[in-house]
Amino acid sequence: MNEHSNIVPLRQPDEIDDPLTNILRSGARQLLAQAVEMEAEAFLAAMKGLKLPDGRDRLVRHGHGPVRTIQTGIGAVEVARVKIRDRAVTSDGERIRFTSAILPLWARRTKSLDALLPVLYLRGISTGDFQEALAALLGKDAPNLSPAVVSRLTTEWQLEYERWQKRDLSARRYVYVWADGVFLQARMEDHSECMLVLIGATPEGKKELIGFQVGVRESTQSWHELLVEAKTRGLKIAPEIAVGDGALGFWKALDEVFPATRHQRCWVHKTANILNKVAVSVQASMKKDLREVYLASNRASAEVAIDVFAEKYGAKYDKAVECLTKDRDAMLAFYEFPAEHWDHLRTTNPIESVFATVRHRTVRTKGSLSSTTAKLMVFKLLCAASKTWRRLKGTNQLPKVIAGVRFENGIEVIQVPENHAA
Question: Transmembrane residues, as ranges (predicted)?
Fold first, then answer.
């Protein structure tokens, strides 16, 4: 048969001619295959001491499983699972089995894609449109993302969420908490509903999702229910400080459930509220002056910066000045904690960053989400984001806060009994 041909295949209209993507996928296929092989070899090496009575190795390679397609962020990648055979037959019929951590038995998608689905859903894309939305990234008719598959995923997420909701918090301790209410107006059935999110920092400096629920706006009752629910599951010790915006509902509920917790207002929200009260021409200068307050090296300097701000703008922009000065203590509470933590305590950024691409959308898109479905999508979004949350700086300071050390301007000054508030 003649190997040379003058017939040149034409690119189809819906195909994307991208040699670079093809090279990346080819390289990813090779790397994945190598990683799976190395994992199997490492397992065999660890079990090298297991022998049969005749001296032969008990565990040996046994070929590969069927080739399967894994959906990744750069498209479909084909790979075959390594099979390992246990040649010994025990009295109870048990055999040693090899399970790949890289390529689980039933995996069909990377975890990053599962994390992407809630984002698409909350952005207003229905399950039936996922394949079209991802076609440019994953290729036409991307498998393993059909509406039926996504529906099955949501069922699994519901079970995962229910287990998470029942977890025991009695062994947990959160020294700092961040709270915020997130409106997902594009997909919620009722525009008055929002997601109430509570994140905490452990004494080791790790940020964790404590709880969230669908609330009626940011009412005191909704926040009270969320805080009481966490306390009922074992969260008995009050956090040292809570960071949130100006929503009165949260602060009133916090005082009812954890009255010893200090209040720290978010500087990002406060700055936006102040600038909204002045002309655009003044905002740049005013924003710079506000930075002099919350970036001051100590509380005394911050107090002076507030006084300067009030004197500079009080005559003409009294409402902006009042917006700042009425919450003076709550805006500067972070200075009573270790200086390494100030960057973390000034804002609700851990929550803001998670929802940056899906919140405050005013255009109502096709297909509203029920409260239950929205809660599941937000749960998965938060679970994925929690793996990337930045640990607290200066984590060695956290045990001192728990032990009752008082700080002034971020410096340890007084040792107080452990049962007293820091």
Answer: none
The per-residue pLDDT for 25 is 57
> How far apart are the C-alpha atoms of 46 and 40, rounded to whole Å?
10
Helix/strand/coil percent split, the chain, to 5:
45, 20, 40
Q: What is the dihedral of CA 21, 384, 117, 29, to 10 degrees?
A: 30
* Residue pair 133/150 in contact by the 8 Å Cβ criterion: no
- The Cα 363–Cα 380 span in angstroms is 23
Asked whether the beta carbons of 336 and 408 are under 8 A apart, the reply is yes
- pLDDT, one tens digit per residue, over 56-106 is 888 888 888 887 776 665 556 677 778 888 888 665 667 788 877 766 665
* Residue 35: pLDDT band with limits 50, 70, 90: confident
List C-alpha distances in Å: 340 to 123, 401, 409.
36, 13, 11
Residue 353 C-beta-side C-alpha neighbours within 13 Å = 13
Q: Where are the alpha helices (DSSP H) in 68-125?
A: 111-122
| Count, residues in the chain | 422
Distance CA 395, CA 393 (A): 6
Any idea what DSSP says for residue 47?
T
In sequence order, the 6+-apart residues with CB closer than 8 A to the CB of 327 are 246, 265, 270
- pLDDT band for position 11 (cuts 50, 70, 90): low
Q: How far is CA 390 from each of CA 239, 348, 358, 402, rounded to the nearest angstrom?
A: 19, 13, 21, 21
Helix axes 318-325, 267-275, angle to 10 degrees: 160
Amino acid, single-letter form, for residue 219: S
Determine whether 106 is exposed, middle or buried from the number of CB atoms within 10 Å of its CB (0-12, 13-18, 19+): exposed
* Residue 141 token pair: 């008719």
Phi and psi at 301, nearest 5°, equal -65, -35
> Which residues make Cβ contacts (< 8 Å) with residue 346, sequence separation at least 6?
243, 264, 266, 267, 294, 334
CA–CA gap between residue 114 and residue 52 (Å, rounded): 43
DSSP H or E segment with residue 67: strand 59-72
Q: What's the confidence (pLDDT) of residue 265?
A: 94
Q: What are phi and psi of 80, to 5 degrees?
A: -115, 140
DSSP state of 339: G
